[in-house]
Amino acid sequence: MEHTGTEPYSAHDKPSWPPVAIPGRPGHHTGEAPASANSGAPAAVSADQPAETAAPDPAPTAGSALLDELRAHIAKFVILPSPEALNAVTLWVAATHLQPAWQHAPRLAVVGPAKRCGKSRLLDVLTETVHEPMLTVNTTPAAVFRSITDEPPTLLVDEADTIFGTPKMAEKNEEMRGLLNAGHQRNRYVTRVVGNDHTPHKFATFAMAALAGIGDLPDTIMDRAVVIRMRRRAEGESVKPFRSRRDTPALHDLRKRIAAWARPLLDEAADLEPAMPVEDRAADTWEPLVIVADLAAGPWPRLARAACAQMVAAEAATEEDHPSGARILADIRRVFVAQREVDSLSTEELLHHLRQDLESPWAEWGRNGLSPRDLGAMLRDFDIRPGNVRLADGTQRKGYTRNKFLDAWRRYCPTVHPVDAGTTRSED
């Protein structure tokens, strides 16, 4: 029977997961992909590698044409911020039809700085193309818990900023936030008491989810998401208006054909271990998209890895620019380098150099620029604290020693972001 994208998968369709669900053979995340007739995955190639040295694209499968068609439909109604973002959204939609195969359920964070950036319109298109869409508007967390089974729906959350926008909102929606955080990885359950006798019951949380909102979502969600940063259309940019009566039938037909292509590939998708251009949580998040691309073959393995490398690097740069994140560490490293890698700097001298950087936010931080107390609070998150230090002139002052930053620099702002595809990924 042909799968429509809404009916449940049969026991023969789904890969069997062990109690601790890790796809593939023992030795997951080795960076080696098993041979596959459909994968066609090229060796990991840097996004900026010259075309003449890149491996030729593998022969396309029927899935490659379906992805092309899906991409064209999305672009018809929404202007994405880049070709890479359009490819990423296309692969994410297709990945929802293989959810029983995944170890991680990537979130799609559709964010923008203001209204009318196309966030809700993109969610309209996703609703008609993803596997078993479940809109969470006015839906209680309890209802969502009970809707997530071995064949999870795809959660669609519009106006997510109304859930997470303020501490009061976040507290009010703590259950939904916890579900969205836990549901990124398989075998993460929530326990609730049910029935008149209040019997404890475990509810599954694993499900792919798209969240749209103004401004960034909480870090715990952004870190588990393929991030699409939407923009308002510029003058001269136009899209086709989306009309449910006219446009939905074609999207539903496409969804049905994508599901029919994906259904026989569940076991193969679960076994694939693709070479990735990133590592750690970013690799966990992007792996389903890259696997879909490898199954489709044609240009898609190359396009998927290029989108992954470029979009992850862009988010890393955004995080580094965030004052309360790795930005302060990177700027302090630049100060120590400019001072010829001295062993220590007084707090006063370090703050002076930080405020001198016209491209940094530190001169305008607070009322009088970044203060010793503000600096200490930021660095405390990285287990770095001031102390008595001996300066080059022999005097002792309150300050920071360079060696206290070495571990944090290595972990949060490495000098080289791209990683060799064969590097082993850590589990976190």
UniProtKB/TrEMBL annotation:
Biased composition (Basic and acidic residues): 1-15
Domain of life: Bacteria
Organism, scientific name: Streptomyces caatingaensis
Region Disordered, residue ranges: 1-62
Composition bias type Low complexity, residue spans: 33-62
Occurrences of domain DUF3631 (ranges): 229-412
Protein name per its UniProtKB record: PhiRv2 prophage protein
Lineage, broadest ranks: Bacteria, Bacillati, Actinomycetota, Actinomycetes, Kitasatosporales
